[in-house]
Amino acid sequence: MTGQTNRATETTSNDGLGNPIKYTGMIRSTFRPSDDATIHQFLIPSNMMFARYLESASSIMALIETQEAMNLNIRMRLMASEIRAGIQKHGIVHHSLFGLIFAYEVDGYNSQNLMDDANLPSLLSAAMMGYVNPRDEVYLNTRLFALSQENPYWMRGNVYQGIGGPHVGPGKAWPLAGIVRAMTSQEASGDEVREEIKAILNTTDGLGLVHEGVNVWDAKDWSRHW
Questions:
Q1: Of 15, 67, 84, 133, which is most buried with the most CB atoms under 10 A?
Q2: pLDDT tens digits, the chain, 226 residues: what are they?
Q3: Nearest-angstrom CA–CA distance, 8 and 119
Q4: pTM
Q5: Cα–Cα distance between 113 and 135 in angstroms, integer?
């Protein structure tokens, strides 16, 4: 896929094929949920979601007493297992500060993109969608990474802090990621949830609506008054 644009994230290299990939068992994604082009085409969060809901859909097929449904159930479970194996082998990498974490994108050639984006599915949402247990060690390490300045798209200002992405650019955090942060919190005290919800409520610019992206230095600078 190619297009005429003034933004590199809205088109792909190699005449629309994207950057090279090597077989991993995962499914390639030319674009992210944010509509930005992937750097490496094995987008880990999307593969997590697909595997998770293949497994859920296969359980429906298991209840239908036909040979066709039985065959589809088997195919779904085999595909989900293959994707999970690919993520396990290629999508878990070592970070010097956080230990083993999930990469955001890989290519099968040992290239990896370490970041997280606010859009769903994201690495932060892996536990929320049921791909991993919320207390899984690799997930918890990944969560710490995603919510830190080691994540290239972690935005921090005097008004708000959170995960953004290239779709709206530097300096803009998405309250959507803050909602996911609250929903995946495992703090027994509940402080993280309360603080995040309070922070999101302070970004509405008096409209009482959750915006797409908010300038972390100026709550009056936002996109989409949802």
A1: 84
A2: 676 766 667 778 888 888 999 999 999 999 999 989 999 999 999 999 999 999 999 999 999 999 999 999 999 999 999 999 999 999 999 999 999 999 999 999 999 999 999 999 999 999 999 999 999 999 999 999 999 999 999 999 999 999 999 988 899 999 999 999 999 999 999 999 999 999 999 999 988 889 999 999 999 999 987 6
A3: 19
A4: 0.93
A5: 24
